Amino acid sequence: MSPNSAPAQRRTPAPPPGTWLGMPAFPKAAREQLQRAEQRQNLARATTHIRGKRAERAAEVADWEELRTAAAQIKTRVARHLDTYLVQAEEAMTAAGITVHWARDAAEANRIVGEIALAKGVDEVVKIKSMVTQEIDLNEHLESIGVAAWETDLAELIVQLGHDRPSHILVPAIHRNRREVREIFAEEMGRYGTPAPPTMTDDPEELAEAARAHLRAKFLRAEMAVSGANFLIAETGTVVIVESEGNGRMCLTLPETLVSVIGIEKILPTVADLEVFLTLLPRSSTGERMNPYTSLWTGVTPGDGPQDLHVVLLDNGRTDVLADPEGRAALRCIRCSACLNICPVYERVGGHAYGSPYPGPIGAILNPQLRGVASEVDQALPYASSLCGACNDVCPVRIPFTDILVHLRHKVVEHKTEHHPTAEQAAFSAIGWVMADGRNLAKAQLASRAGGAVLGDRWLGNRVIGRLPLPIAGRWLRARDVDAPPAQTFRAWWAARTPAAPPVDGSADAATEDRA
Amino acid sequence: MLGLPGAGLRVALFATCIADTLTPDTPKAVVTVLERLGCVVEFPPGQTCCGQIMTNTGYFDAAVASVRNHVRSFAGYDHIVAPSGSCVASVRDQHVMLARRTGDARLVEQASQTAARTLDFTEFLVDVLGVTDVGAYFPHRVTYHPSCHGARFLRLGDRPTRLLQAVEGLELVPLPAADQCCGFGGTFSIKIPDVSIAMATDKARHVVETGADFVVAGENSCLMNIGGVLHRDGAAVRTVHLAEVLAHTRADAA
After folding, report:
1. A438/B47 Cβ within 8 A
2. pLDDT greater than 60 at residue A453
């Protein structure tokens, strides 16, 4: 992204200023997002609808749970033998006429794609919706070298024309309603190509028709397309893309050159494994039995479709994820977005608060692993969950989200306390001491009872907030009252009820021995 | 007490630190119900906390002290019963993981044994004692919030509602969006308070919509969260732990 080579005027709509990692961390970002009443309605309506459809379609499949297990096992095997499968895939792709590139990180991948475009002499590319190119911010790199990247997925088009960022893996414009989409199309389409018809209303059919007309011109003149991939078959070198709108099929068949950027975890061992994943993915993702378009290609077919095929195999932190036995299950993800749609946190704040194109539960476990936990954004993400576990249950590849979230919280704590202790660490050490022995807890309870007696009121709320010195109390009491502590703990009641109760095995006496 | 479903069964009550300290009526209710069913209840006094607040905030070392204390306190019991889905889930799902990190094979073994013997109150009643009618009387309209840990981590299924439906005089009304989290989430409630409150507010609204007199759950922390909003908003609905409903009899009502 050399500033020297940047053209004076942009070719494509500028995204919002700043970077994902430059955004406020989750607690603050979430607070801002919660203020957007219209967005909250859009999100609640959309996620409720789509998770209902997913549940219906999953319930239709008698062996759904077995399929989930099979998918998890296949992906686990891929991760275990990734080195072998990657080489196998490279050999198969090369034999089929695909040029294979390896990219260590985002910069390398962007450079490779940019160089192909420049070598081909194209100044624009059409794009199939792809998470990985969002991850590496490919569009902005291409813009910086004078190549316009046009998103052709309807929702990505809304995001791009809206100078916006995606907020969902599957439905990147989920935070927008049709009235907003109409405004964006009417305002922006004419600046970048075929304008929207002046009579266009916010009827979804009219909006789709405007998008068709706008994109058609771009499809017909495009000489190069860029895609991601849903799956890459190691045995045959076959690339697989699953989509709904047919824009992908246009990109995969019309241009002369096709570059597919593929995360190294996208491998499946054999074509037969697709049976499992093509059943799970559409039902988990859009709540459809089958997605409308599934494209598979194995190298170049002379005279049919793109004649110059490239695949860029991207690491960009994935081998770091693989190196962590507790966290690596995140690499099983097939980007279906079922975890986003079921997540009560995502439903309320949307995707932008997660500081990454990967939002929701998968973002909360993937970003801090791909990027590490050095940034404030990534340190906050593992905590962006109430650990309710709804994501565990819908995940088609059985990613143990809550286990990984807790594991990453520990990593964050280790990182934060590596060089100096924190106030939170001191508090938890104190809790740890209290809970290490029943007698310590009894003493702490006595102290808290004294506090309760001072506060007096049965219900604590607005009236006493000023008297509570702790900031955490304020966070609770902002909208919630709390019951004052009772006069007697259970422990004290029990002791009074059974004064002569003998200590049982392993009680206080044994504790003393262990400590000695 | 012969002939009672729990006759001769020695049960260790894991009161949980929250209930011991803040809602002692809940473990008292567990004692009442279990003794009514013939069990011999013991309260191992060394017990404290399952450690989930530390584990789930990432303070694994502090949590290990709780695990050591827990396995020591509950050694030798065949039945360990707690009135909290999340504490039971912590013992079952997290203690062994924490123990493994210490490299202490004996602790791993002890934690595995304790985990295998720890049950949620409703599991003990339905699965071990084989009862759903525990002789309770609660003449009120109630709705049930299936807490996340009970529903999704312990898979309690319909055990709680079967127990409630067997309560004399009780009218159980369905809670809209029942499976959605109330937003408590332990330290989530103070680390991301705005989202937590948004979730709790929606949950409280659904509770009010049912027209119930009481919202029942098997988890006092959820009830504290939901009840906190209900009380702040001046709603008439009260919160009550499932064990307290089951402990209530005609004699209490008289």
Report:
1. yes
2. no
